[in-house]
Amino acid sequence: MRGKAGLVIGIAVGYVLGSRAGKERYEQIKTQWMKVWNTEPVQDQVAKVSEFAKSSAMALPSTLWDSAVKVSKAAAGKGTPGQRVDAAVKASKAAADDLDRAADETTAAATKAAEKAKKAADEARERSEA
Q1: For the chain, does the N or the C end have fewer beta carbons within 10 angstroms?
Q2: Would you say 48 and 116 are in contact if contact means Cβ atoms under 8 Å apart?
Q3: Measuring CA to CA, which residue among 46, 88, 83 is closest to residue 67?
Q4: How many degrees, rounded to 5, is the angle at CA 117 between CA 113 and CA 118?
C-alpha cells in the first residue's frame, strides 16, 4: 500500500513540476489541492496523525529506558560473574523483543492512521470534483 501511495504522489509531483501548461495550470492544481487539504475531514485526520506521532514518540523511549534498566539490574545481580553475564544476555534478549514489539505496534498504528488520512483526502477530493 505504501508503494502505491508513493507512486501516485510521485506521478502527481512529476506532473506538476513537469507540466508544460505553465504557471497557470500549476496555480489551478495548487488551488484544488489547498481546497482538499483544508477540508474538515482531512484536517481531522491530520490532527489524529499528529497526536499519534506525539504519543508514539513518547512510547518507544520509555520502552527503551525500561529495557536498559532490566539489563543493568540483571548485570548487577547476585551470582558469579558468568551467571551475571548470562542473566544480562537473557534480559537483553527479552528487552530486544519488547522493543521490537513496541516498534511493530507503532508502525502498524502509524500505517493505519496514514491510510485513514489518505482515505479522507481522497473522499474530500472526490467531493470537490463533483
Answers
A1: C
A2: yes
A3: 88
A4: 115
